[in-house]
Amino acid sequence: MRDQDIALFFTCGVVICIVMAVVNLLRFKSRGISAYFLAGAFAALGFLFMSMLQKWPDSIATIFAVIIAACLVVDFILRSGKGNQTP
């Protein structure tokens, strides 16, 4: 693959992550606090793509990966705590 193709992929990934983070923040009323953690995971994924695009050190990419994993685990725990509640 050419460098331009890779740059386009990461740039599109950053834009999609920003859009999804904003969408999750807008869904706060229906999703509760879990929306913040999912938005944080999308934001961290966007920063991970940005770090790969800008060729930042691998330690920074690892930090973003750990943040993504932590946000997704907390989101899973918060969602599983709701159980089968009927509205």
Task: Characterise this structure.
This protein has 87 residues and is mainly alpha-helical. The chain has helices spanning 3-26, 28-31, 34-53, 58-82. The longest helix is centred in the last third of the chain and has 25 residues, at 58-82. The protein is elongated and about 45 Å long. The mean pLDDT is 89.
Instruction: Report the sheet-strand fraction.
Output: under 5%
Largest sheet: none
Q: What is the first-to-last residue Cα distance?
A: 50 Å
Task: Assign an overall shape.
Answer: elongated
Structural class, judged by helices and strands?
mainly alpha
Total strand segments: 0
Helix content: over 70%
State the helix count: 4
Low-confidence stretches: none
Radius of gyration: 15 Å
Mean pLDDT: 89
Keywords:
single chain, 87 residues, mainly alpha, 4 helices, 84% helix, 0% strand, elongated
What's the short story on this structure?
By secondary structure, the protein is mainly alpha-helical. It contains 4 helices and no strands.
